[in-house]
Amino acid sequence: MNNDLYKIRQLSAGRNQPTCFHKAQILILILGLLVFSGSVCAQRTLTLEEAIATALLNNYQIQLSKNDSTIAAIDYSYRNMVFLPSVNGNAGLTNTNNNQKQTLADGTQRKSSNIRSNNLQANVALSWVLFDGLKMFATRDKAAALLEAGEYTIKEQVVNTIAAVINNYYAIARGKQQIGATDVQIKLNQERARLAQNKLDIGTGAKPDVLQSKVDLNSQRSLRMQQEVQVAQLKEQLAQAMNSQINGAAFDIPDTIPLNYDLSLGNILDAIEQKNPSLQLAKTRIQVAQYGVKESRADLYPTLSFNSMYNFTRTENKKVINPFSTLFNQSHGYNYGLTASIPIFNQLSARRNIKQSQWGLKMEELNYDNQHSLIRLNAINSYKNYDQQKRALKLEEENIELAKENVDIVFQTYKLGMATLVQLREAQLSLAQAYDRLIEARYNTKLSETELMRLEGDILR
Fold it and tell me: Which residue range(s) make up the domain with 97?
């Protein structure tokens, strides 16, 4: 009977299991996920790695971030084009049909109608900016900073998605552990109801004991049904987070919650400075704003350009009324030179743009300081919670053994008629509460651990 009563002792297990997985494992898992995504017929065990890999493949926010980064990558690939000249070709054909009337100085008049002519013009123009206040260099470097910002945006979304999947995944495990704890209470109540009925049958028991035992049994059965619904809902939430074609009924997960007991606040705070994607993104935005200031300052300096053009012109007149006019004229050739544009007064727009860029830079610096302060505060508070939950978990692991032993003793004495139903119910209630606290402490420790790893930015290590 003792084995039946306490068959879920493994609820306390799993302390030293690994909590992280290697990046290469994700790459391998991604290759096989299409098989899993299409398998909805039979229930199978879904590992955390598979859940994360599926979410990374299908998450909409990650896909949108990738698209933004791709646009930045395109701009980056053309960053050196700002140093090259621009070349444009132009061509035009004009046909005319005029009526002309001329009066010369000697009083002679000439008049003609339907005078046709055509004019063909074509040119190729080259314009090459040689100096623009170093604006082209700032534009090139700004493209590199924007590309880096896009990469950190993707990483930030990836880390947040993984953390959300981990929390959802182990919320299901917590629900299954709660079901297991309820099963212990159901078995206890079944045995208690049987003993109460036996005592009543032999005349040493009371009817209220039988009724109360059955009421408690039905209450636990009802609680179990509620817990099953909650687990099913959490599984559907996980399926939605993975954005897969499967549903919650198609998979199951283990009921263990592995924990990492070796996290150090000092190491986490050091890692945040180097790896947290939100902080790195804020730093990169400062760089982008700095290049924006340089671009604005360039408008204060003159612009020197090299210009060259090849021209071709041909004019053909069908007839003329002036004997000195040409019937055919054609010319072609090229020209080249330098052009300097010196800003003298432009309604102070350049200075206005500089001030706006400088304020934008200051806002990005303030945003970084704010992000830095909030993330450090969140890390310190999360670590305090993590440490407190670890100590609470150790205490509850001791309490669960005491509660189990107490129920076993009271149950045996109840069989011998040396304990009352009230005493047995109190012992059961203490056991149920001990299980609840144990499961919550384990899950809360996992939440704190995941949050610390999310803040560290190295959740895929």
Answer: 85-131+302-342
Other CB atoms closer than 10 Å to residue 10's CB: what's the count? 11
- Nearest-angstrom CA–CA distance, 428 and 372: 49
Domain count, the chain: 2
**Both tokens of residue 52?**
């994360």
Bridge partners (DSSP) of residue 306 are 128, 338
Instruction: Specify the pLDDT at position 57.
Output: 84
What is d(CA 170, CA 168) in angstroms, rounded to the nearest whole number? 6
- With contact defined as beta carbons under 8 Å apart, do 435 and 380 qualify? no
Mind giving me the DSSP string for 377-414? HHHHHHHHHHHHHHHHHHHHHHHHHHHHHHHHHHHHHH
SS3 91: strand
Q: What is the pLDDT of residues 111-127, one digit of tens each?
A: 888 888 899 999 999 99
- On whether both 97 and 138 belong to a single domain, the answer is no
Q: 339 with 307: CB under 8 angstroms?
A: yes
- The span from the CA of 162 to the CA of 382, in Å, is 18
Q: What's the CA gap between 172 and 176, in Å, rounded?
A: 6
- pLDDT, tens digit, 9 for 90 and up, residues 294-331: 999 999 999 999 999 999 999 888 777 777 778 888 89
| Residue 461 located in a structural domain | no
Asked if 198 and 74 sit in the same domain, the reply is yes
Give the closest residue to 253 by CA, choosing from 196, 176, 197, 305. 176
Residues 202 and 101 in one domain: no
Say which residues have a Cβ less than 8 Å from residue 295's Cβ, sequence separation at least 6: 135, 138, 139, 142, 357
Query: 175-186, pLDDT tens digit by residue?
Result: 999 999 999 999
With H, G, I as helix, E, B as strand and everything else as coil, classify residue 87.
strand
User: What 3-state class would DSSP assign to 101?
Assistant: strand
Residue 143 to residue 330: CA distance in whole angstroms: 47
Residue 245 is classified by DSSP as S
pLDDT digits (tens, 9 = 90+) for 26-36: 443 444 444 44
